[in-house]
From TrEMBL:
Gene3D superfamilies named in the record: P-loop containing nucleotide triphosphate hydrolases
Lineage, broadest ranks: Bacteria, Pseudomonadati, Pseudomonadota, Gammaproteobacteria, Alteromonadales
Protein name according to UniProt: ParA family protein
One Pfam family matching this protein: AAA_31
Similarity annotation: To B.subtilis soj.
InterPro entries: AAA_dom, DNA_Partitioning_ATPase, P-loop_NTPase
Domain AAA: 3-178
Length: 265
């Protein structure tokens, strides 16, 4: 069964989409079967995967509102070697329509159920807001991965986000966990970043990934070439960091499996 990980932070510009695209590609490069779901009407993860958002037949709108089966809306030939549910402006309409509908929080969870066996990892790129789309992501996910920049107000934002996640989880998905906290656009020469990073570790312990994503211009350039960084410049520090993050997620998942098995025995 695939593990479903929502990449979320209500703040914009923290590296959610960059993480979604590059983590999905890195996982696929380790021969895992990966599905990436773009839930942001901006469609940045779609474009960054080399799929033209203005020219896709189906998007998350068809999946969530028209309830077309996932295998009918998925794009299988992306530049990241993963499968993609695309997004574009239509997905804004999905957000509005879902508000009026019955069992609207569980649309994505229900859509994923029949295909979970086909994937090892499902990543969801969330919009930077607490919309019906984000609620659907939280309801469908096993866990949440939170990218954040180590800035002055980051910890406050994070505490607010954790409160929101807890409240949402109670309402729509009691088994939802925090997968991990990822430090993005990190500059080790910046003292404030180091301070915030230490506070983060003190507060959230081993939920903070060891892997740090550095600020790297290749990560910012790659989307305009419609490809994850590892296919644009595989020797870049950004591409390497996301490969290392994929390794860390895999190791954690294996440790978790062992712990679960031991607890059962
Ligand atoms: N590690 C990084 N180094 C350099 N630029 C980055 C990095 N991560 C993200 N960016 C750039 O920062 C901007 C915001 O990132 P993005 O992933 O779109 O954030 P979000 O999805 O949270 O809004 C984009 O222009 C992106 O290319
Ligand atoms: Mg984004």
């Amino acid at each position: 069964m695939g593990r479903v990980i929502a990449i979320a932070n209500q703040k914009g510009g923290v590296g959610k989409t960059t993480t979604a695209v590059n983590l999905a590609a890195s996982m696929a490069a380790t021969r895992r079967k990966v599905l990436l779901i773009d839930l942001d009407p901006q469609g940045n993860a779609t474009m960054g995967s080399g799929v033209d958002k203005y020219d896709v037949e189906n998007t998350a709108y068809e999946l969530l509102v028209e309830q077309k089966p996932l295998q009918d809306v998925v794009v299988t030939d992306t530049n990241g070697k993963y499968h993609l549910v695309a997004a574009n402006g239509d997905v804004t309409a999905a957000d509005v329509k879902l508000m009026e509908e019955f069992a609207r929080e569980q649309r994505l969870a229900n859509a994923l159920k029949p295909v979970l066996d086909h994937y090892d990892f499902v990543f969801i790129d969330c919009p930077p807001s607490l919309s019906m789309l984000t609620v659907n992501a939280m309801a469908a996910a096993d866990s949440i991965l939170v990218p954040m920049q180590c800035e002055y107000y980051a910890l406050e934002g994070l505490t607010a986000l954790m409160d929101t996640i807890e409240r949402l989880a109670e309402a729509v998905n009691p088994r939802l966990q925090i997968e991990g906290i990822l430090r993005t656009m990190y500059d080790p020469r910046n003292r404030l970043a180091n301070d915030v990073s230490e506070q983060l570790k003190a507060h959230f312990g081993d939920k903070v990934y060891r892997t740090v994503i550095p600020r790297n211009v290749r990560l910012a350039e790659a989307p305009s070439f419609g490809a994850p960084a590892m296919y644009y410049d595989k020797s870049s520090t950004g591409a390497k960091a996301y490969l290392s993050l994929a390794g860390e997620l895999i190791r954690r998942a294996e440790q978790q499996k062992k712990a679960d098995a031991a607890a059962e025995a």
